[in-house]
Write a structure and sequence with these properties.
This protein is an alpha/beta fold. Helix content is 32%, strand content 15%.
């Protein structure tokens, strides 16, 4: 398989998933897609699998993920399901948060080699990724958003994350006040395990490394351009689907709404026929007047 894009999805994020998949298929149509489903329901998401041609990855070690969550947070956390991407049987993958729309062909990122580093990321966010850690824990690498990164499946066996986190916590004899989220944990684990991380700019890719919704991109005939680097913008994270509590709707809601509308039109046009249930198949025969 060529380098796939991996994403997590659930019925609670149905519209965001539709906009994400529609934009990915319009702008990077040949890229393989792999969905890690959340446990809170994928009945609606399942409708999209044939329409947008993506595979599911649901055979990972859920117990290992729950162990990490209990050790670090004291309770189970479905958001750590993202970390299952490190056990998919592919050489490397590009992980994207599903609340993203794709604006360009992503092959300049997926084709980037991982021969000198362990993880390449977008959206460097200094001072934010460790916001809930106690002072004193060592920070060795650049902090990054886990909403967009390129990595190998060998980067983090799940047991390594557990062992790395435990070793650091025991070494400092303190408890990390990590937020109930994957971002500070993955940054923390990269530091503890000594992983080599750089951003896509440092890797020399021709696409803008900035993907966060709030940047002031320039509009050109060829699409959005990052004025700071004059590079094309490939992704918009939180383009139009912000959270009332934490993140306001993004300034490019028009693009989000367009891809969402295109997606719903495609679903109406291409939605597979519902599979007949046993009862559906049996009742017509029950009342049939024919001999067979």
């Amino acid at each position: 398989m060529n380098t796939p894009v991996v994403f997590c999805a659930s019925d609670q994020l149905f519209d965001q998933t539709v906009a994400f998949l529609e934009s990915a298929r319009q702008n990077s149509p040949e890229i393989p897609l792999i969905c890690i489903p959340y446990t809170n329901g994928i009945d609606k998401i399942d409708i999209l699998s044939e329409i947008y041609d993506f595979q599911y990855y649901d055979t990972y070690d859920i117990r290992a993920l729950q162990n990490i969550s209990r050790i670090v947070y004291g309770a189970a956390n479905d958001r750590l399901r993202k970390l299952a991407c490190f056990t998919i049987e592919v050489d490397k993958f590009l992980f994207l948060d599903v609340n993203t729309i794709v604006l360009r062909d992503l092959r300049p990122w997926t084709d980037t080699p991982l021969d000198r580093v362990d993880l390449i990321f977008s959206e460097m966010s200094p001072g934010e990724s460790y916001h809930d850690l106690h002072d004193g824990l060592i920070r060795r690498s650049k902090e990054f958003s886990t909403g967009c990164f390129l990595a190998s499946r060998k980067t983090f066996p799940l047991e390594m994350i557990v062992h790395a986190v435990l070793a650091e916590l025991f070494l400092y004899k303190r408890v990390a006040k990590l937020s109930n989220d994957d971002q500070p944990l993955l940054n923390f684990a990269c530091d503890v395990a000594g992983k080599r991380t750089i951003d896509f700019d440092e890797a020399g890719t021709p696409l803008s490394t900035r993907t966060w919704y709030g940047f002031d991109y320039a509009e050109t005939a060829e699409g959005l351009v990052d004025p700071a680097t004059n590079k094309p913008v490939a992704l918009l994270h939180f383009a139009g689907c912000g959270s009332v509590e934490t993140i306001p709707p993004g300034p490019r809601r028009d693009l989000y709404r367009r891809y969402l509308a295109d997606g719903h039109a495609r679903i109406a046009r291409e939605r597979p026929a519902a599979k007949a249930t046993v009862l559906d198949r049996f009742v017509p025969r029950l009342f049939s007047t024919s001999d067979d």
